[in-house]
Specification:
By secondary structure, this protein is an alpha/beta fold. The chain has helices at 4-10, 17-23, 33-46, 50-57, 74-89, 103-115, 131-138, 162-175, 191-206, 220-232, 245-257, 291-307; strands spanning 64-69, 93-98, 120-123, 143-146, 156-160, 181-184, 212-214, 239-242, 267-271, 285-288, 321-324, 327-329. The protein is built from twelve helices and twelve strands. It has a six-stranded parallel beta sheet, sandwiched between helices. A six-stranded mixed beta sheet has the order 7-6-8-9-10-12.
């Protein structure tokens, strides 16, 4: 027999249809001010218009999609704005939830999203076993994975060629004659960074070189300590490949602090472009991906699934994987001359 707490967790939102209808009339005499305030706050928090709330309470989905992301960093913020743009074009709202990179929080938020009866889900997962995402999919809500697949979930996915992009960036450093190339960054537990590390390893092994992995450098202080060691070491790396945007920023700051010049002392290629990369004293060579491109594609794919929901059964539906290529943007930090 289920406990009272378990029964409460399994219930849908408890705003009754009459309260929702009456709360819209601020002067209705039969609605207490406290009740009206609570109802309207709940609707605002969920992100539904009163019409959407009424659809939800009738057991139907509203015109809202959910986007679940680990955080709202530059990359994922760009994804959100692109998804929102597509949703508005389809006359839908977007409910965005950041999980703080916690798998337990992600599961809690996904449970809440399922109870809110959204029309579809886009998810940039923080990890975990994917159980809650599968439950959402099995309830009839279309799901599309963005940027990284969800463990154990057979769903459409829009991904970036992280491995190939990293391999290309490291090969470029090897072509400059570098034999000691460090791989610098953190978050190796995530799918995207794991793929980039694998691309780095492939490039190094293919050239007969020994990988130098520095993949637990997760803040500026740690990067400064690493750069300090390099500044006094005779056998330091002559080049570095940075695994993500924030790692590139930390690396540039740390090298500057310890008076190591790019590319004379250490050549650098970073994964992912950012606005100031081109205007630095030594512009940064990067492996560029397109967050807006993959987010738009994922959102359009989700709306296609929403439109086809009544025509295709789950047994008939085929999953698709879209892979977006990266582009090596040559600047001066790798050792290439300045381009006019």
């Amino acid at each position: 027999m289920k406990s009272a707490r378990a029964r409460r967790r399994g219930r849908r939102p408890t705003i009754i249809r009459r309260d929702v209808r009456l709360a819209r009339d601020n002067n209705h005499p039969s609605v207490k001010l406290s009740t009206r305030t609570k109802v309207m706050q709940a609707i605002a928090r969920i992100g539904y218009s009163p019409n959407d709330a009424a659809r939800m309470l009738k057991g139907r989905t509203g015109r809202t999609i959910a986007l679940v992301v680990p955080d709202l960093s530059d990359f994922l913020s760009s994804c959100f704005h692109a998804v929102q743009e597509v949703a508005r074009r389809h006359d839908y709202q977007t409910l965005v939830v950041a999980t703080g990179r916690g798998t337990a929080v992600e599961d809690q938020q996904l449970e809440s999203i399922q109870n809110h009866r959204v029309a579809g889900l886009l998810i940039v997962t923080s990890g975990g076993d994917g159980r809650r995402s599968r439950m959402i999919q099995q309830s009839g809500i279309p799901v599309v994975a963005l940027d990284r697949p969800v463990a154990g979930l057979q769903a459409d996915a829009v991904l970036v060629e992280n491995r190939e992009g990293a391999e290309q960036g490291v090969r470029h450093l090897i072509e400059h004659g570098h034999k000691k190339i460090a791989c610098v960054g953190f978050d190796s537990g995530s799918y995207t960074v794991r793929e980039r590390i694998e691309g780095y390893n492939l490039a190094m092994r293919s050239a007969g070189l020994q990988p130098i992995l520095c993949t637990n450098v997760n803040n500026l202080e740690a990067m400064q300590a690493l750069a300090l060691r390099w500044s006094t070491a005779r056998d330091r790396p002559t080049a570095a490949f940075s695994l993500k945007r924030i790692s590139s920023v930390y690396l540039i700051q740390a090298l500057h602090l310890h008076k190591l010049k790019m590319p004379e002392d250490i050549a650098v290629v970073g994964f992912d472009d950012f606005e100031l990369a081109e205007v630095l004293g030594t512009p940064l060579t990067v492996v560029r991906q397109s967050p807006t491109g993959i987010a738009r594609a994922a959102a359009e794919l989700l709306f296609k699934k929403i439109a086809n929901l009544r025509e295709v059964t789950c047994a008939e539906e085929q999953t698709a994987k879209m892979l977006f290529p990266t582009e090596l943007i040559i600047r001066r930090s790798c050792g290439c001359p300045a381009r006019e």
